[in-house]
Amino acid sequence: MAEIYLVRHGQAGQNALRNAHEGRFEDDYDNLSDLGRRQAAATGHSLVARGQAGVPVIHGPLNRQRDTAAAVASELDSPTPTIDEAWKEIRFGDMLAPWLREDPERAGLLAQAWKGKLAPEKTSAVNRQLFTAISQWSDGEEFAAFRDTVRAGLDRAAQVALDRADRGDKGSVVVVSSGGPIAMCATEALPGAPWMKLMRTIANGSVTVLGVKDGSHGPQVSLRSLNEFAHLDEPAADGSHPLRTLG
Question: Residue 103 belongs to a domain with what CATH number?
């Protein structure tokens, strides 16, 4: 069986919420932080340890995806990564801007929640409001189009892995994307799984592994692991785990 290693990009722009109500979330967010670059390198290093050196790397068109893919490919000593537009993240800014304009304090609260600076009960309350806004979007036509696009990208990546296996090469491929597409892939392997809840758990630099085999109607995928981030667990001197992030 061939495999796809889905990698979420490293931590991205930490000031994106500041101007999100003005519709600038996407531009402000789409840059890796210094910590995000460390996460990307650590993830690539962990994939080398798993025997994936030299395998092809595919990534979405966003800066944070491209830069993460470059760091991963460098660690793997892989060929230059290739772009597939299907792995682009949903535009959270389009969903967030109206929600944030309703209450100017939401941006500050959400930023604190993402940085772990709010009490657990307040964090839960903010997240519930946020994902209510996202769930309204996920009931519409844009979500259906997003799902179909990710499915097409997944089929292409799966075929790359299968073709490599047929040639006698290592039957695997690394795809660097974002939480939304990765969670969507998991729901393809686990029909009925809640996409939005899965998306909330996908950590920066995490690895999700899909098994791939030929099917009567094209490649079939199965979920082998979800959201692995043990390679990011190295503690700091104060006992914290700085490489574990969700933003």
Answer: 3.40.50.1240
